[in-house]
Specification:
Elements (H helix, E strand, L loop, with lengths): L8 H5 L7 E7 L7 E9 L2 E9 L8 H21 L22 E2 L5 E6 L4 E2 L7 H18 L17 H14 L9 H8 L7 H7 L6 E3 L8 E4 L5 E4 L6 E3 L1 H12 L17 H15 L5 H5 L1 H21 L12 H29 L1
Antiparallel strand pairs: 1-2, 2-3, 3-5, 4-5, 6-8, 7-10, 8-9
The structure holds adenosine-5'-diphosphate (ADP), 2-acetamido-2-deoxy-1-O-phosphono-alpha-D-glucopyranose (GN1) and magnesium ion.
The site of adenosine-5'-diphosphate has 19 residues, from loops.
Length: about 375
């Protein structure tokens, strides 16, 4: 999908109760799915910033259910932080700004759904990990997020994307894309296709264990890449988990796994110099430490044992999704260059190889933790 342009974000911003003169609305962030804008407002109390987002309704087919989830999750997290006396609770969870009609989201004439959040100031989402402190902070935050939602009232959340982390379904979709080869691209990705096909036997591990009850279903984030947690610019502490669109029932293993994918390699997700792509064991150690600090109270032995494998499985799954999107003609992830999805698939698969080579060391590290 090429980045969307042409939405009048400035006009949409006026639909929300921003309490001041709206000065500008400019594209913001590096997410692959939604259209995000930073909105600058001059209020009586000084300058204020907000985040305005158009929900990608080609990806999220039931945006109203998605927003119902987001409202519940934000309200629960904020209430619990307040009850715990957390001093800066306002900065530690996303908070929705109501529309002029007191709704949590706005529907424009073209049927797009828009929502607006307070801007989390003084914190940044990083695309590439720079230090073990950052890895530790990110894992601790996502673990704390899972702990915070363990007692979410109101029943099961909606599945905003059914089978989102059903790796065997992702594999089947890849096989269909390969069989169809609708854009004649398979010939340009022979090694990547072979890499994927050689790993078919491992895709069932987590979904099978969820189905037979060996692993518990919990409320999980499901998109825990490093840039979906904002780290304090001064202390590097994890401040706020963002991108709540895929918060739904799942396995904590996919959450931990995506931290391994995005917070252990010194290279970007789309790095084309594959010699730079590798799992750095000290970063993995920092992830394990941070994650266990928040989750020790509820994690089962089986969940703990599978943490290293989860890093490999989700890196493979996301690589598979990039490769599938490449074969299908780039209809899902935003791209900035023609081979962007193929480049991303190659990077993920290189990281899978690096994880495979270090799996025993990772397992030993978790066993000692
Ligand atoms: P996507 O689903 O497209 O990844 P995100 O919700 O992750 O969208 O938002 C995209 C980017 O916008 C984030 O990576 C982050 O940098 C920034 N962002 C999102 N929400 C906020 C917020 N409330 N305060 C500050 N920055 C934010
Ligand atoms: C997307 O929205 P964003 O950019 O945080 C994707 C994730 C992928 C990720 C890969 C809803 O995340 O599943 O892991 O790209 N989100 C959705 O970078 O598909
Ligand atoms: Mg994001």
């Amino acid at each position: 999908m090429t980045p969307a342009v042409g939405h009048d974000a400035l006009a949409i911003a006026h639909e929300f109760t921003l309490g001041g003169e709206i000065l500008s609305a400019a594209p913001y962030g590096s997410g692959h799915i939604n259209d995000t804008y930073k909105v600058d407002v001059q209020s009586e109390r000084g300058p204020r910033r907000y985040v305005l987002q158009r929900i990608n309704h080609k990806v999220f087919l039931r945006p109203d259910e998605l927003m119902a989830n987001v409202e519940r999750v934000c309200a629960h997290a904020f209430t619990k932080l307040k009850q715990a006396g957390t001093p800066d609770a306002e900065r530690r969870t996303l908070r929705l700004i109501p529309t002029r009609h007191s709704k949590a989201w706005h529907i424009d004439p073209a049927d797009n759904r828009w929502r607006c959040y307070h801007f989390i100031e003084g914190a940044t989402g990083h695309d590439v990990v720079r230090s073990a402190e950052q890895a530790h902070a990110a894992a601790k935050s996502f673990g704390a997020f899972q702990a915070l939602l363990a007692d979410l009232p109101g029943g099961r959340l909606h599945e905003t994307i059914p089978d989102f982390h059903h790796t065997p379904s992702r594999f089947a979709r890849f096989q269909q894309a390969l069989a169809k080869d609708s854009h004649g691209r398979a010939a340009a990705s022979v090694p990547e296709i072979a890499f994927a096909l050689a790993r078919a036997h491992e895709v069932n591990v987590i979904v099978d264990a969820l189905r037979d009850g060996t692993l518990p279903e919990r409320v999980t984030h499901n998109d825990t890449k490093l840039n979906n947690v904002l780290l304090d610019d001064i202390t590097q502490e994890g401040i706020c988990v963002i991108d709540l669109d895929t918060v739904m029932p799942g396995s904590v293993l996919y959450d931990f796994g995506d931290l391994v994918r995005t917070s252990t390699s010194p290279a970007a997700e789309d790095e084309t110099d594959l010699t730079k792509v590798q799992l750095q064991l000290p970063m993995f150690a920092a992830l394990v430490k941070g994650y266990l600090e928040s989750t020790r109270g509820f994690l089962t032995p089986k969940e703990k044992e599978l943490l290293p494998f989860a890093g490999k499985l989700i890196t493979f799954e996301i690589g598979l999704r990039f490769l599938t999107d490449w074969l299908e003609g780039d209809t899902y992830f935003k791209i900035k260059r023609p081979t962007h999805n193929l480049d991303r698939a190659r990077t993920q698969f290189k990281l899978v190889e690096s994880i495979e080579a270090q799996l025993p060391a990772m397992q030993a590290l978790v066993a000692r933790a």
